[in-house]
Specification:
By secondary structure, this protein is of the alpha/beta class. Helix content is 38%, strand content 20%. It is built from 15 helices and 17 strands. Strands 1, 2, 3, 4, 5, 15, 16 and 17 form an 8-stranded mixed β-sheet that branches. Helix 2 runs parallel beside helix 3. It starts with a strand and ends with a helix. 49% of the residues are buried.
Length: 453
């Protein structure tokens, strides 16, 4: 057991001062006392809960910055996807593990303390399955364990190239599974990750275009006895909406809600192109809208109807997706800025009882992210995992902010990253902005980037 003392900490009901935090040997918070006498070791800064990252494709970090070249006057998500397929076709298991490990350390430094990995890179370069024991998903698990980040591993069911069961193309050969092979992999990974104290699995369908309705029902029925997080890409691109309409006469979110019992276990990633009825149904369902503003901007996806969704009480969280950048502050800032650009007005994502945008953004992303990952995280509260950030109180904007303005100052004013120390599961994994593996892993990552160049 360890006792830490923070002069300022963000608790579920707001900022508290002189906070004593007791953490068990297993890495959970067992006690929180505000207005306490100084006790235990002092935390050198301002303490906030670590942020869950609800959507990641780790291998795509190696592509960052390489696709910002005009190859087609009509460049879009779909032309970007062709380049991604080329990267996916050549990457090796060792490279996958190095990229993921490097990325996860970047996430920790940025303020993410857990991640949902949307993992669809299943087979070798020729499309042949690895054995279960050699699964690339286990490389992801190992990278998370070695970096110290919490993990919800989402092996992805990906069977088809488009609606109506269109056969997959060559670029998708590493992704493709049928229902039986998917369930076998999921069962195996669930048993393996049960040995890791900060890891678990969830269910995942790549998208409505990549699976059939029968597959969705089969997978959900198989796991009905043990509900899990369920993630799916949905309505990211207008073309996807148009193709869905051509297939079934409905928009993707409308179809999903009419055919599946969508509830609080679900996370709908990139629910960008929503009608008003779809927005309201999603908000009322208790499911999480998974938003990745920097990737959605980079790919030209569109802008989520954030104001209406928040006004209806909808849950949401953030992910870094393709990792064009890795920054909690940037994802949250661009979520708000996208609404401003769309409406040509300021301060859009406020709530009736909370006018400070930074507070709405950070607290909302904590709540939705924790639910999407299916882990007891995102709160400094007894019974939750001890995942926390220490913000540098030597940073001028942080040091001089009032409680009401502190998150605004971080998210909208700080040029440099103020995250100084990071704890996950009661263990310090980032100290003074550094990870123990920084030097050796940087060398390995440079080698991988040269190999893939």
């Amino acid at each position: 057991m360890a006792v830490w003392f923070a002069e300022k900490a963000l608790l579920p009901d707001g900022w508290a001062h002189n906070v004593s935090i007791t953490i068990s040997d297993s890495g959970d918070i067992t006690g929180i006392v505000a207005n306490a006498a100084p006790d235990g070791e002092r935390l050198p800064g301002i303490v906030v809960p670590g942020m869950p990252n609800l959507h990641s494709h780790a291998f795509q970090r190696a592509m960052a910055g390489l696709t910002e070249v005009v190859a087609n006057p009509s460049d879009s998500f779909w032309s970007w996807r062709d380049l991604m397929y080329r990267m996916a076709a050549k990457i090796t298991p060792d490279q996958v593990e190095i990229i993921a490990r490097y990325l996860y350390i970047e996430m920790l430094k940025a303020g993410y303390t857990s991640v949902a990995e949307f993992h669809y890179l299943h087979h070798d370069n020729h499309g042949n399955p690895y054995s279960l024991q050699d699964s690339l998903a286990l490389r992801i698990s190992r990278a998370a364990s070695q970096s110290g980040i919490g993990l919800t591993l989402l092996p992805v069911l990906y069977s088809y190239a488009g609606f109506s069961g269109q056969p997959p193309g060559q670029g998708q050969r590493r992704f493709i599974q049928d229902t039986d092979s998917y369930l076998a992999l999921h069962h195996y990974l669930t048993a393996q990750l049960a040995r890791e104290p900060m890891q678990r699995t969830g269910l995942c369908f790549h998208s409505l275009r990549a699976v059939t309705p029968e597959q969705i029902q089969q997978v959900l029925a198989y796991h009905a006895h043990q509900p899990q997080p369920v993630h799916i890409h949905i309505a990211e691109q207008q073309k996807e909406v148009d193709d869905c309409l051509a297939w079934c006469g409905q928009r993707p979110v409308a179809w999903l809600f009419d055919h599946v019992a969508v509830d609080h276990h679900w996370c709908l990633i990139h629910a960008t192109h929503l009608s008003v009825p779809e927005t309201d149904r999603l908000a009322a369902s208790g499911a999480v809208a998974g938003l990745c503003p920097t990737t959605e901007a980079n790919l030209g996806d569109g802008i989520f109807p954030g104001q209406r969704y928040l006004s209806q009480g909808g849950l949401w969280g953030i992910g870094s997706d393709s990792h064009i950048t890795v920054s909690v502050a940037e994802e949250l800032r661009w979520l708000e800025y996208g609404q401003r650009l769309q409406d040509q007005r300021r301060n859009r994502l406020a709530l009736p009882d909370e006018p400070a945008i930074g507070n709405v953004l950070y607290q909302g992303a904590l709540r939705g992210g924790a639910q999407a990952l299916g882990q007891k995280i995102g709160r400094l509260q007894p019974g939750y995992r001890a995942d926390l950030l220490v913000l540098d109180d030597r940073e001028p904007f942080i040091a001089t902010a009032s409680d009401a303005m502190r998150l605004n100052r971080w998210l909208f004013a700080c040029s440099a990253n103020p995250v100084r120390h990071v704890m996950t599961g009661g263990r310090w994994v980032i100290k003074d902005g550094h990870h123990a593996d920084d030097e050796s892993l940087s060398v390995a990552f440079i080698r991988v980037l040269k190999q893939l160049r």
